[in-house]
Write a structure and sequence with these properties.
This protein is mainly α and 157 residues long. Strand 1 (62-63) and strand 2 (67-68) form a beta hairpin. It is built from four helices and two strands; from the N terminus they run ααββαα. Strands 1-2 form a two-stranded antiparallel sheet. The model is unreliable at 146-150 and 152-157 (pLDDT under 50). The longest helix has 31 residues, at 71-101.
C-alpha cells in the first residue's frame, strides 16, 4: 500500500511532467512516454490490484498448520509497521493543519520555495532548465543539445 501511495503522490500530485523534468535535469535526457505511462498508470493499478488480491486471499494464520495465533499477536504484528509510520503521518498532519490554520490551504500541494539541490550552481542550473523546458512546452518544441546535459556539466564546478 505504501508503494501505491508513493506512486500516486509522486506522479499524480507532484506530477509526472515535473518528475520527468527532474530526471532530465539529473540524467540529461527525458524519460520515454512508455516510462511515464508506466509510472503514472500501470504501476499504481498493478500495486492496488496486488494489495486487494492479498486482502481477498487472507486467511487466519496458523502455527504448525493447526493452532491459531492469539488476537494480541496479530494486533502486535499489524502495529509494528504502523509505529514506524506514525511520526511521518503526525508531522504531515501538523504541517497541513498549520497551513490551513494560517489561511494558506492552497499551499498544501506546493513544494517549498527552497526545494532543490543544495549546491547554488546546481540550483541555478535546475531553475534555468525548468524555465527552458516550460518555455519549450509552451512553444510545443523540445529543448535538446545533443546528448549533453544542458542543466549540469560537472566540468564547470
Amino acid at each position: 500500500m505504501a508503494g501505491f501511495f508513493t506512486c500516486v503522490t509522486v506522479h499524480w500530485v507532484f506530477g509526472v511532467n515535473n518528475f520527468s523534468d527532474m530526471i532530465e535535469f539529473m540524467l540529461g535526457f527525458r524519460p520515454s512516454v512508455l516510462m511515464r505511462v508506466a509510472w503514472a498508470c500501470i504501476a499504481p493499478v498493478t500495486l492496488l490490484v496486488v494489495f486487494v488480491g492479498s486482502l481477498l486471499q487472507w486467511r487466519w494464520p496458523l502455527y504448525a498448520g493447526t493452532i491459531h495465533y492469539p488476537v494480541w499477536a496479530l494486533v502486535l504484528g499489524a502495529a509494528a509497521p504502523l509505529v514506524t509510520l506514525a511520526p511521518l503521518v503526525i508531522v504531515a498532519l501538523v504541517h497541513v493543519m498549520e497551513l490551513v490554520w494560517n489561511g494558506r490551504g492552497r499551499d498544501i500541494l506546493k513544494h517549498h520555495h527552497q526545494w532543490g539541490p543544495g549546491c547554488p550552481v546546481a540550483r541555478q542550473r535546475l531553475n534555468e532548465a525548468v524555465r527552458l523546458t516550460r518555455e519549450a512546452q509552451r512553444l510545443n518544441t523540445r529543448v535538446t543539445k545533443g546528448s549533453v546535459n544542458i542543466a549540469f556539466d560537472s566540468t564547470d564546478l
